[in-house]
Design a protein that fits this description.
This protein is of the alpha+beta class. The chain has one domain. It has a two-stranded parallel ribbon. It is elongated and about 50 Å long. 1% of the residues are buried.
């Protein structure tokens, strides 16, 4: 299986990027912080936007949720 692993590693390292968005599958996307309970804070625009050419997400979405019942043992 060494040849499969090396082929996969080379493929991942090649990092062919999308001509439209410029991102590859392994690239880090910009972070979009979303506050569901506070719509006037956070990211402006659509944090779930995808590239029309490659279909990859353009952002890494962080959803900020405040837990009001701390210590209750609920999850």
């Amino acid at each position: 299986m060494g040849s499969i692993d090396s082929r996969l590693r080379r493929l991942e390292e090649s990092g062919d990027s999308c001509p439209e968005c410029g991102l590859s599958a392994a690239a880090r996307r910009p972070i979009a912080v979303v506050y569901p309970d506070d719509s006037d804070k956070g990211f402006d625009g659509d944090p779930h936007e995808v590239c029309a050419a490659c279909g990859e997400s353009l952002y890494t979405v962080l959803r900020v949720v405040y837990d009001t019942d701390r210590g209750e043992g609920t999850s």
